[in-house]
Amino acid sequence: MGKTLMAGCWALMLWLGGQAAASPVGLSVALPMQVIHDGLRFRVPAGPLYVAHPGGGAEMLILKYSHVKGADYITFANELTVGGAGCAPEALFQQVIKAADTDTATANAGCDEAVAVFQTMFARGRDVGVWAGDTHRFYYFLQPPAFIFRDARRSFVFITAGDGSVVKMESDFLDKPGFRRAVSGYLP
Fold first, then answer.
1. Cβ(125)–Cβ(151) below 8 Å
2. In this structure, which long-range contacts are made by residues 118-126, counting pairs with CB atoms below 8 Å and at least 24 apart in sequence?
3. What single-letter DSSP state applies at residue 154?
4. Within 10 A of 53 (CB to CB), how many other CB atoms are there?
5. Greater confidence, 9 or 101?
6. pLDDT for 52-61, tens place per residue?
7. What residues have CB less than 8 Å from 70, skipping those under 6 apart?
8. CA distance 171 to 156
9. Which stretches does DSSP call E strand in the chain?
10. 79-114 b/e with 16+ CB inside 10 Å = b?
11. Partners of 158 in the beta sheet?
């Protein structure tokens, strides 16, 4: 038996089967459970202490793995305004990654301002790249694991689909293999 957690706009359903296999210690090696957010399936460490779905129109799911305030979490959120007017999310992410790889400015005037902001907020000093599957792209912006300040260890994966929708996955404890494992069902 496995664990499945689903979140949608109107409902949160939690089905737990089998035994919990995780503790806050050794989070990245815990047996995985399945989380479904906005129709996407993710494999995350089992045993969150808290699960929250704020409701009120917020399409967000929060998994909390410890009692430490603001730490040891994974969140999933629908991002409705990534890129802004004149800049599609795919174009934004591709330009941010290209700029990070080459340390140059962007070439698409429609995205320049959004790319500059995104570079400052998400890309600067992080491992950036993309994992591509058949139906989705996973743009990652990962903090180096040896980063000293807990509050600044936030890492992100933005998931895009052909319809222009974007889901953001954020965590302060998952490393690159942990994020990749979370989305492995969509990768070759």
1. no
2. 118/92, 122/96, 122/156, 123/96, 123/97, 123/99, 124/100, 126/155
3. -
4. 22
5. 101
6. 988 777 789 9
7. 151
8. 7
9. 3-7, 12-16, 32-37, 40-45, 50-52, 60-64, 73-79, 127-132, 136-142, 155-161, 166-171
10. eeebbeeebbbbbbbbbbbebbeeeeebeeebbeeb
11. 139, 168
Would strands 3-7 and 166-171 be described as parallel, antiparallel, or unpaired?
A: unpaired
Q: What is the mean pLDDT of residues 147-151?
A: 57
Is there a contact between 158 and 147 (Cβ–Cβ < 8 Å)?
A: no
Given a cut of 50, whether residue 22 has pLDDT beyond it is no
CB atoms within 10 A of CB 65: 25
Enumerate residues 6+ apart whose C-beta is below 8 A from 171: 73, 74, 75, 154, 155, 178, 179
Token pair belonging to 61? 């799911």
User: Phi and psi at residue 132, in whole multiples of 5°?
Assistant: -110, 130
The arithmetic mean of pLDDT across residues 29-41, rounded, is 83
Please state the domain extents for the chain.
3-79+130-162+171-186, 80-124
pLDDT of residue 147: 57
pLDDT higher than threshold 60 for residue 29:
no
CB distance 27 to 175 below 8 Å: no
